[in-house]
């Protein structure tokens, strides 16, 4: 059965409902009055909120066909299930009940919307939050789907009533090639997700195809000074805006870093394309509180060290996060606590990762967060540590295997003159929470 419209389905079951993107679509369909059920492997605050607003969610160690409710007339799934439970996935696809991926569902949602898509290998989430904040403050009443928690609404989803959809689009598995945006931000393009893409040229090919999906009367906003981006947008038919031309003299963001100022330029370019008053857009960004795990201030340790947390997990993001921290705290000792994300990413980006810690005074490494991957004996945090040591012989470097031992070390080592920044896309944020006395780790 071809699924071409979500409106005709009433009982929708989500597999991997706790994912940041999948849960947003579940919230959207709940807001439209649909009956929503779902499953995932672990509880989280996102799932708690889904239950609170009416979703029926089960936590399952192993997915079984029999766990799908009998009255389900559509299944929406996270593509992670293809790797995590391939036999279940094949059986699910053989069911009479139609099933579509998160990206396919998003395509149907965006089909009748004025879609503003934010893409790029880094900076997507913060830029999406900025665009959303500007549009909400300008009374555009947008629907928003973002890959984190937008602090202004304490959610990864905003149920708007207008035609506008602001959505963060991931390049992984070319998921963004399911939608046709009217406005597209391409923040940047660098090597990432090399467990899927062959190389930088393959990534650029995906972005070239995405840019080609913007109509002639649409707008592409990008960085004309980025050498990896220019070839991608050159052949696109849309109107082009170089966000480097956007003035930011009156911009006073609450968080540091040139990368965030560039994110703001892109968001302000969207405001200009939509006819929003420029000074009001600037004021909106000046009061923007940010998103979860993007240079997020967590608090202080008992000995007075400041604790921040950031989702950075590739070389450019790590460098930007540390440069921002150094800009904010030029005289403090900066302790970077990094959890490498994925064996494949650590192996393929070993050299650039090892060159990413110039602004840190001390680097503490935890073991690699495997996520969707099986362990790879050819790569480890210890190997990364040796590479970092080659580049930064003057820095204090540590590899500590257990989170509790990292926390103990930082509580002993860190003091009032220090800033501790936990970095990574896995569960390294738990250390930041432990350091400041937060014990609820179920984000």
From TrEMBL:
Gene3D superfamilies: Mur ligase, C-terminal domain (3.90.190.20), Mur-like, catalytic domain (3.40.1190.10), NAD(P)-binding Rossmann-like Domain (3.40.50.720). GO terms for biological process: cell division; cell wall organization; peptidoglycan biosynthetic process; regulation of cell shape. It is found in: Cytoplasm. Residues 11-112 form the Mur ligase N-terminal catalytic domain. Pathway: Cell wall biogenesis; peptidoglycan biosynthesis. SUPFAM superfamilies: MurCD N-terminal domain (SSF51984), MurD-like peptide ligases, catalytic domain (SSF53623), MurD-like peptide ligases, peptide-binding domain (SSF53244). Residues 118-227 form the Mur ligase central domain. One of its GO terms (cellular component) is cytoplasm. ATP binds at residues 120-126. It catalyses: UDP-N-acetyl-alpha-D-muramate + L-alanine + ATP = UDP-N-acetyl-alpha-D-muramoyl-L-alanine + ADP + phosphate + H(+). Keywords: ATP-binding, Cell cycle, Cell division, Cell shape, Cell wall biogenesis/degradation, Cytoplasm, Ligase, Membrane, Nucleotide-binding, Peptidoglycan synthesis, Transmembrane, Transmembrane helix. Belongs to the MurCDEF family. Cell wall formation. This is UDP-N-acetylmuramate--L-alanine ligase. It comes from Candidatus Taylorbacteria bacterium RIFCSPLOWO2_12_FULL_44_15c.
């Amino acid at each position: 059965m071809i699924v071409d419209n979500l409106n005709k389905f009433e009982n929708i079951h989500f597999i991997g409902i706790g994912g940041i993107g999948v849960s947003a679509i579940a919230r959207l369909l709940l807001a439209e009055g649909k009956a929503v059920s779902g499953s995932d492997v672990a509880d989280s605050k996102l799932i708690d909120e889904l239950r609170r607003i009416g979703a029926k969610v089960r936590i399952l160690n192993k997915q079984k066909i029999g766990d799908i409710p009998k009255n389900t007339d559509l299944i929406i799934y996270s593509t992670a299930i293809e790797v995590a439970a391939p036999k279940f996935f094949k059986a699910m696809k053989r069911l009479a009940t139609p099933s579509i991926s998160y990206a396919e569902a998003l395509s149907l949602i965006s089909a009748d919307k004025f879609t503003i898509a934010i893409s790029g290998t880094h900076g997507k989430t913060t830029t999406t939050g900025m665009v959303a904040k500007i549009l909400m403050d300008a009374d555009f009443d947008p629907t928003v789907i973002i890959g984190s928690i937008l602090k202004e609404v304490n959610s990864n989803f905003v149920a708007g009533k207008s035609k506008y959809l602001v959505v963060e689009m991931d390049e992984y598995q070319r998921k963004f090639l399911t939608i046709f945006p009217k406005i597209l931000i391409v923040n940047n393009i660098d090597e990432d997700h090399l467990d899927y893409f062959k190389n930088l040229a393959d990534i650029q090919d995906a972005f070239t195809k995405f840019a080609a999906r913007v109509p002639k009367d649409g707008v592409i906003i990008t960085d004309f000074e980025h050498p990896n981006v220019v070839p991608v947008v050159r052949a696109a038919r849309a109107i082009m805006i170089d966000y480097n031309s956007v003035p930011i003299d009156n911009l006073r963001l609450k968080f540091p870093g040139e990368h965030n100022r560039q994110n703001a330029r892109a968001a302000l370019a969207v405001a200009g394309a939509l006819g929003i008053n420029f000074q009001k857009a600037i004021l909106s960004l000046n009061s923007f509180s940010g998103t979860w795990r993007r240079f997020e201030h967590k608090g202080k340790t008992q000995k007075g060290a400041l604790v921040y947390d950031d989702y950075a997990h590739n070389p450019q993001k790590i460098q930007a996060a540390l440069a921002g921290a150094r800009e904010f705290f030029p005289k403090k000792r900066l302790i970077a606590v990094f959890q490498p994300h994925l064996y494949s990413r650590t192996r393929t980006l070993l050299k650039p990762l090892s060159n990413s810690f110039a602004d840190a005074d001390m680097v503490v490494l935890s073991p690699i967060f495997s996520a969707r991957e099986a362990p790879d004996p050819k790569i480890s945090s210890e190997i990364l540590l040796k590479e970092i040591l080659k580049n930064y012989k003057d820095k204090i470097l540590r590899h500590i295997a257990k989170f509790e031992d990292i926390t103990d070390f930082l509580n002993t080592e860190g003091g009032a003159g220090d800033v501790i920044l936990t970095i990574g896309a896995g569960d390294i944020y738990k250390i930041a929470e432990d350091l400041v006395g937060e014990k609820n780790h179920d984000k």
